[in-house]
Automatic annotation (TrEMBL):
Keywords: Membrane, Transferase, Transmembrane, Transmembrane helix. InterPro entries: Bact_transf (IPR003362), EPS_sugar_tfrase (IPR017475), Undecaprenyl-P_gluc_Ptfrase (IPR017473). The chain crosses the membrane at residues 12-36, 48-70, 82-101, 113-131, 284-305. This is Undecaprenyl-phosphate glucose phosphotransferase. Residues 279-458 form the Bacterial sugar transferase domain. It comes from Candidatus Merdiplasma excrementigallinarum. It is found in: Membrane. It is a multi-pass membrane protein. Its main location: membrane. It comes from the Bacteria. Its EC number is 2.7.8.31.
Length: 466
């Protein structure tokens, strides 16, 4: 049975992570100073290197916390966890390099920092997968399971059971459902309706349960107050899964109006002035750095476009941005010059004859998007955000796809959560919007940094770009 031990497990996890960070750092120091460096004259004494651990260990643990590495393993996938570990280590390296630059310490070995990050990443991923495997083995033996009773047979109940069945590694075991309108004995994916809601108090007295999940249908919400009172009287942890889950955010944002809780239908962190300022500063600094770094490539691209086809180098297309306002988005021209009416016909298709030879290359590699760095600098776009669409498609999709217009509550981006998850070009608009809404509701600086890193490693090559 699960009692509330997650806090103690997290503390143990922090201690283990701290030990791994220390071991990784010491190994990196030994490899760099004793195995790689031939002449150790002028190297800093060991005491200086070890003193840095006083700052490195708590700093990396804070980064792990910021990248959600201490959330329960029941609901966090291995790939997502490995990605978060990588991002945390990458940001840690950048911070160490920045600190060394600010304190003007040229003798501190820079290669040591990269060796440390590599070792730390590998050992941390191994450690967490070992813990995950141990927990799964324990659950297979019937231990460490979270026993749940559901109150109410509804669409929300079926969705919850579906996810539990698809993810046995979570260690959830649904012991049954109580409902007043469905016949006892009815099964849904081996979960049985065991009685009516009136039997809840008796069941709680005679069974040891970890949680009660209230999954009443909308037409039964009048029973909610009595059921919650019964659950709280028993002391069992109670969660509420609303039957209208498709219209509320994944992380509900509530306000307190003198004791009256108000749930906001859409929580957008970027409506906060401070968050907006932080993101805008990141966009300005990031776009300037990228313009400087990629200027040779952009210049070469411009020359090749001009030399191989007639027409302008830069193509400006009207897109819909923040607060539904249109703006001109810049791209390197990858197609033959067309009339305005031809442009509105639709998306580019496979083997589209309008695409130039150079255009095929720059579209596949996303080089055609680089001029949007100037859109970011102007404030029309952000480095990270939902991709903007043309006005005619916005009008079409707003009627066909629920919640489509939510994406216009933030600045559009050059890259985004949908793009790094493979939804680019000729892919599902609905899944793209799901990713956009997830990003909008869960925005953090860490998520932006993670998306930028993922874009570098798997976002530039677009197999769906024609």
């Amino acid at each position: 049975m699960i009692k509330d031990n997650q806090k103690h497990f997290n503390r143990l996890h922090v201690v283990i992570d701290g030990l791994i960070i220390a071991v990784s750092y010491i190994l990196a120091w030994y490899i760099q100073i004793h195995l790689i460096v031939k002449d150790r004259a002028g190297t800093l004494p060991v005491q200086i290197y070890m003193l840095a651990l006083v700052f490195v260990i708590p700093g990396f643990l804070l980064l792990y916390y910021g990248f959600n590495l201490y959330t329960p393993k029941r609901v966090q996938g291995r790939r997502l966890e490995a990605s978060n570990i990588f991002c945390a280590n990458a940001v840690g390296v950048l911070l160490i390099m920045f600190v060394l630059y600010m304190v003007n310490e040229p003798d501190f070995s820079r290669p040591l920092i990269f060796i440390f990050a590599g070792i730390n990443y590998v050992l941390t991923v191994i450690e967490r997968n070992v813990i995950r495997a141990l927990l799964r083995d324990i659950r297979r033996r019937g231990m460490n399971l979270k026993h749940i009773l559901m109150v109410g047979y509804s669409r929300a109940a079926e969705e919850f059971i579906d996810r539990v069945v698809q993810n046995p590694q979570w260690g959830y075991q649904v012991n049954g459902i109580l409902d007043d309108s469905v016949r006892p004995g009815t099964l849904y994916k081996n979960v049985k309706v065991v009685g009516s809601t009136s039997s809840l108090e008796k069941i709680l007295e005679h069974n040891s349960l970890d949680e009660i999940a209230i999954t009443l249908g909308l037409n039964e919400y009048y029973k909610l107050k009595k059921i919650v009172a019964t659950c709280e009287k028993s002391g069992v942890h109670t969660k509420f899964i609303p039957d209208y889950y498709d219209i509320i955010p994944t992380r509900p944002y509530t306000e307190d109006l003198q004791g009256l809780p108000v749930i906001n239908i859409r929580h957008v962190p970027l409506t906060n002035t401070f968050n907006m300022m932080v993101k805008r500063v990141m966009d300005i600094v990031g776009s300037i750095l990228c313009i400087i770094i990629f200027s040779p490539l952009m210049l070469l691209t411009a020359v090749l476009i001009k030399a191989t086809s007639k027409g302008p180098v830069i193509y400006a297309q009207v897109r819909v941005g923040l607060h539904n306002q249109p703006f001109k988005m810049y791209k390197f021209r990858s197609m033959e010059v067309q009339s305005p009416s031809e442009e509105k016909k639709g998306w580019t298709t496979k083997n589209d004859p309008r695409v130039t030879p150079i255009g095929k290359i720059i579209r596949r590699t996303s080089i055609d998007e680089f001029p949007q760095l100037f859109n970011v600098l102007k404030g029309d776009m952000s480095l990270v955000g939902p991709r903007p669409e043309r006005p005619q498609f916005v009008e079409k999709f707003r009627e066909e796809i629920p919640r489509y217009m939510v994406k216009h509550q933030v600045r559009p981006g050059m890259t985004g959560w949908a793009q790094v998850n493979g939804y680019r070009g000729n892919t599902s608009i609905r899944k793209r919007i799901d990713c956009d809404i997830y990003y909008i509701e869960n925005w953090t600086v860490g998520l932006d940094i993670k998306i930028l890193f993922l874009t570098v490693f798997k976002g530039f090559i677009n197999k769906n770009a024609y």
